[in-house]
Structures
1.
Amino acid sequence: LHVPGHVIVDFVAHEVHRPLDVPIPGQDVVRRVLDSGYRWVRAHPTSGEGVSGSALTVQLDPSGRPVQFYIDLHGGEGWHDSGHPWHDDLYLDVIGHPAEHDPWMIDATAIIDGDELDEAVTQGLVTPDQADATWAHARQVEAQLRSGTYPPLHVLKRYLEDPYT
């Protein structure tokens, strides 16, 4: 589904043989983010090739409640000949976990996969300047998640609140 500035990719996992549980940042607790009946909805930007940005996937339990927000940082995106969206992964990701009282408010965040970005720099896949910019972008996204101002979050919330989705 195309919405201004984004493409929405909406996936329901019908039969999962190995559920996925992930730790909640800063807590000694894990939360299930994938199992049978879970839905992952992604706001994939349409900014273009070579344009840094981010793509948000909200992971929902079978009742439709968000259980995690997962942001991929990228150095550009576009469309594959198959018609599917792609992005130039910059390795760092930002995760946010919803507050118990309001699943669209974020009460825990973390920047993950810094080791993968370091390895990409070592291998020459990412320049040191790109890595520095990616870290700065990750911190900005994390701050926006915590303040409730991360724009793709509002795109997905509106999409999911639409009675026709």
2.
Amino acid sequence: MTKKYILTGGPGSGKSSVLLELEARGEYIIREAAEDVIIRYQAQGIEKPWEEPDFQDEILKLQIQRENRIPENIARVFIDRGIPDGLAYVQSGTEIHAKIIKEARHYDEVFLIENLGQTQTNEVRRESQSSALELERKLEEIYQDLGYYTQRIPPGKLKERADKILQYIEHDAMKQPETETR
């Protein structure tokens, strides 16, 4: 069975860069769905897709599609944002909130990629530094509420962050199954 590792964190934390570093090392990855949905909408002339009523639903659909396409022969996959990440962007009690909860999958480990100390905005990333830090806090809380321990990856050089993730995985692989807790 494929082991699934989530990279989560606020905007501008370096998640995608860490993911690409892992891919360069031969790891199987899944890119962030939200960014690709934003780019698709903007290519259609919709400047602020996050204001569209079906925006979060489109992200969820793409994320599910990508996770369902993981080849069975892959030992492990690194995913830029898991399905529960969407909970940080929707109101509790809404239809999309319920859909995200229903579709949440099992992940083997959640790595919270900590903020780098600054957040640059662009056409896709619109959050300020304070918003990015608040989202980081919310994401950690969401995963913890779902029963996950979030392994924090502090700011640092790209190679060191990727090394730290792989070291945690190797350390976990050496543990005896009966001593593992989640």
